[in-house]
Amino acid sequence: MTDSMRILIGHVLDALAKGAAERGGPVPAGEPDELARWVRQQLGEPLPQAGTGAPEALETISHILAYGAADPADPRCAAHLHCPPLPVAVAADLAVSMLNPSLDSWDQAPAAVTLERELIGALAELAGYDGRASGTVTTGGSESNLMGLMLARDRALGRSHGAVSAARDARIYCSELAHFSIQRAAALLGLGESAVRPVAVDARQRMDVRALEGELDRCAAEGGIPVAVVATAGTTDFGSIDPLRQVIALARRHGAWTHVDAAYGGMALCSDRLAPLLDGLDAADSISIDMHKLGWVPAAAGVFLVREKAALVSLERRAAYLNPEDDEEAGYVGLLGSSMRTTRRPDCVKMLVTLRALGRGGLGAMVDHCHDLARYAAERIGSHPKLELIASPVLTTVVFRVRGTDHANAELRRKLLREGVALVGRTELAGRVHLKLTLLNPHATRAHVDEIVQAMASAV
User: Fold this and answer.
1) pLDDT mean over 354-362
2) Residue 115 exposure: Cα atoms within 13 Å on the Cβ side
3) Which of 86, 336, 402, 460 gets the most CB atoms within 10 Å of its CB?
4) Is the pLDDT of residue 258 over 90?
5) In what helix (H) or strand (E) does residue 437 lie, and over which residues does it extend?
6) Is 435 in a helix, a strand, or coil?
């Protein structure tokens, strides 16, 4: 690192500290248009005729970014699956940015291609896969889910390189609480959103196995093609985990590819307490896991795993300027054939650094702490006369309502935002507005939970 780089990093850190101190809470107070005007005023002309110089540009924009942040490091920022990144992972990300490798060819990232392979191997082993497994680092669950459904489509419809055509008989099954990226992926893959058939959930917000069985039987009776069954290990709203072993066994009997969206819950495998909830994960054909959720790594940090490396055949490409055959025969093998992307930074580095620094035990302890906080929050909410607990937490999400109208619940969240007091999540279930806390801060305490609950009760 050059002296000029050290000086510039110092400017960034000072500006971040200044902006956070001025903000004073988890989010900046005020209306959205007020913040937008402030940003434009501070920024000035985005592309001036004459540049302002690196120190000024860094200080100004870093200050804007920090003041106007929804800061996941603040314990009162508890709306989304948005974790406070660990300092060691942030520092690792800096190393990658400075060297700027790309994983599509070996000669752009001689060491990093092996680092990604080692990361994939470690997480595949954590998921219960054996040495036949493979995968790639992704931008997150949406990309990973797209990859899983692409491989499922290509296997079911016989397209080794994914030619798009109308596949009117294709069916993809997932719970009615599955992530919206399933529908989006079906549209992108040429199957259409209507190919996705939502399956009812049980009283614990998990995919109902009997309902799935009925859907698959109906598919067979109608001559449909069961392309895939997507199980969820950690729904966005409830953190609920489908009965993986039963779902996968049923899907396999009907010849469907099985993909598990474990973007939220996958890293719960590090917790001895919560890992049993993911029983059966090792039987899935493919898996999504995000380390920018319960892994405390800066986004983007997703991983896509496949049980059989041969399943990645759809991604294989030959580009003379990247992976000529004679180079690969000589051992110069990059990662072009494992990803949907070409130029790709080694986000594996910040993930590997985190795994090595904390180990499974350290990460598991952090998961357990956040789970404990969620259970405590559920107790506090359930016993408060102004609040109503909707579901006990499975992972780290607590769903609840303020006793009152939908408008009262929606307005409470906006009021807390306007005042910069707390960031609380929102969702809709059965047509009604619900609120939620997603507790991903391993440094938060019960006192912080008490502050959030008190802020909500006072704002009603």
Assistant:
1) 98
2) 19
3) 402
4) yes
5) strand 432-438
6) strand
Q: State the Cα–Cα distance between residues 113 and 383, nearest whole angstrom.
A: 52
In eight-state DSSP terms, residue 106 is: G
CA distances from 399 to 28, 78, 293, 402 (A): 24, 12, 18, 11
Do residues 258 and 245 lie in contact, with contact meaning Cβ atoms separated by under 8 Å? no
pLDDT the model gives residue 329: 87
Q: Which residues, listed in sequence order, are joined to residue 434 by a DSSP beta bridge?
A: 427
Single-letter amino acid code for the residue at 202? D
Answer with the residue of higher pLDDT: 336 or 33. Answer: 33
* Local structure of residue 107 (DSSP, 8 states): G
What is the phi/psi pair of residue 40, to 5°?
A: -65, -35
For residue 1, what pLDDT is reported? Answer: 65
SS3 of residue 360 by DSSP = helix
CB distance 46 to 405 below 8 Å? no
In angstroms, the CA 188 to CA 173 distance is 17
**Does residue 166 register a pLDDT over 70?**
no
Do residues 378 and 392 touch, judged by C-beta distance below 8 A? yes
Q: Which helix (H) or strand (E) holds 458?
A: helix 446-459
* Each residue's pLDDT tens digit, 242-253: 999 999 999 999
Q: Is the confidence at residue 403, as pLDDT, over 90? A: yes
Element (H, E) at 401: strand 397-402
Q: How far apart are CA 265 and CA 232, in angstroms?
A: 9
Coil vs helix vs strand at 339: coil
**pLDDT tens-digit readout, 425-447:** 999 998 999 999 999 999 999 99
Side-chain-side CA neighbours of 434 within 13 Å: the count stands at 18
Q: Which residues are bridge partners to 258 per DSSP?
A: 229
Res 193 pLDDT > 50: yes
Sign of the C-alpha dihedral computed for residues 13, 14, 18 and 21 taken in this order: positive
Q: Which residue has the higher pLDDT, 84 or 317?
A: 84
Would the CA dihedral through 321, 326, 332, 333 be positive or negative?
A: positive
Task: Identify the pLDDT of residue 159.
Answer: 58
CA distances, 161 to each of 112, 144, 154, 316, 333 (Å): 27, 18, 7, 8, 21
Q: What is the pLDDT of residue 167?
A: 64
Half-sphere exposure of 170 (CA within 13 A, CB side): 29
Q: What is the DSSP string of 262-308?
A: ETTTGGGGG-TTTGGGGTTGGG-SEEEEESSSTT--PSP-EEEEESS
Q: How far is CA 162 from CA 169, 202, 380, in A?
A: 16, 35, 51
Residue type, 85: P
